[in-house]
Fold:
Amino acid sequence: MGVTEVLTRKSGVIVGEDVRKLFKVAQEKGFAIPAINVTSSSTVIASLEAARDAKSPIVIQVSQGGAAFFAGKGVGNSKQEASIGGAVAAAHFVRSVAPLYGIPVVLHTDHCAKKLLPWLDGMLDADEAYFKQNHEPLFSSHMIDLSEEEVEWNIDTTAKYLERAAPMKQWLEMEIGITGGEEDGVNNESVDNNSLYTQPEDILNIHTRLSKISPYFSIAAGFGNVHGVYKPGNVKLHPELLSKHQKHVAEKIGSKDSKPVFFVFHGGSGSSKQEFKEAIEYGVVKVNLDTDMQYAYLEGIRDYMLSKKDYVSTQVGNPDGEDKPNKKYYDPRVWVREGEKTMAKRIAEALKDFNTEGQL
Structure:
């Protein structure tokens, strides 16, 4: 059974029950969906192209900083106006072009810490406005990340946001247990290592509380995850903890489902294939990838510029002749495309690693 057999919407941005069905099929068939952080229409295209060619679903997401970049670095953001406007613009762009690629897309927003809640509020305003006209939210899902806050406040606040999202059948991802390292201006490089590992009781508490509101939620549990890429051996991942969480929740709620919790793998860049495989085996349905994608996008542009140095240094004149024009070399559509190619290639690798390839 392929993914599209269980989905109401076969291509383009999916929402509501289709998102839950996609994640459940992922658990049943043993695959996870790469969640690619995008910052521009170009990185969106690279993501869609890779998923289309691999016959795979994909998650496209924007962070608060990525959304602001989408709106333009010259726009003020003191009240999150650039991040809100950029995220909404990205969402409409993805909704416009995703159907052209013939694949299901989960449209998501990444980490929203306490100080960034006005950003989430603004996006939910846009969701509700879109819902009134189209009977579905603009975004498939959002992530609220209050993992740096006191646990009860984290759960209480997440529950309030899920209550707002529930009437739209919108998915909400939350985090418990801190992801180390640094990403998008949030620095957790100095946190106590014990904070990187979530306890089974916390997962049960979250599942019990949120399940009473809506079935549309997932948990980014800490099992040693770290944002960024580090030397082998410097990051101690323990994906086996996710298995303990699943067993604990299933036992306490009396579930026949051995994987009652939808888990998310944060800080995926630089992890080993075995670590991914094990985490997916224990119910991870989504893996965040950002750092590796940034480098992959750079590679194509960097290599092109280095190889064409004598053709992009001036508008006219190159090794083929001093009067030869160079427009066909410095046209952004040429060198930006090279970045898309190398990023798409890296995403294709992730789709293979996560067993997502060919799952449509």
Observations:
- The CA atoms of residues 315 and 326 lie 5 Å apart.
- Residues 180-193, 227-233 have pLDDT under 50 and may be disordered.
- The chain has 13 helices and 14 strands.
- The longest helix spans residues 332-353.
